[in-house]
Amino acid sequence: MSLPRTTLIVLSLVCLSALLAADNPAPDANANSNALFNGKDLTGWWGDMTLWHVEDGQIVGKTETGIKKNEFLKSKKSYGDFRLVVKMKLVPDTANSGIQFHSDQYHDNEMSGPQADAGKGYWGNLYGENFGNKTLQKNLAGEQVVKVEDWNTYEIVAVGSKIRTAMNGHLCVDVDDPKYLRTGMFGLQVHAGKATEVRFKDFEFEENPKFELKTLKE
User: Fold this and answer.
1) What is the mean pLDDT of residues 97-124?
2) What is the pTM of this model?
């Protein structure tokens, strides 16, 4: 028995819709290929997981007894030009931490590359972690812009050979140097030494941005 023409047309449209849906699945509302941190767990990161966990939407690095060498929570992906805005809190302020970017793995869990530094005497500096092991540029704003043992907004923008950072809306670093790597991993640091707790939250991440600081105050 042959089907009526109108029925065949309806069936054809239904089949076509099903095929289009299969080829173009609905986007996942929680998916964000540019997100460094999903706010729930450490998917996309690796390192010594005895030192790192997620609590209240924050990445927490903690050692109660101190550690013998620097440890890093590293991104599994490498990135090129980017802007990162994140809130960071370090206790005690006499401890040390930092945010690696455009960096490589170096000797087990350590890293090599530029670091947006953190800790008393180092906040806001650009440091070369196993990359000269020295301060590459001092904090242009000085440490008076730091909220001691409180949340600080850190912004890093890197485009080509140019790097700028800001803390709490104040310019810290402004460099242009071809020796810096232009791609690499991110890394969050727990520094060797005494007991430390460092927290990171409210990640805002953008790839291929304009070379400008969004948080900079006039």
Assistant:
1) 94
2) 0.84
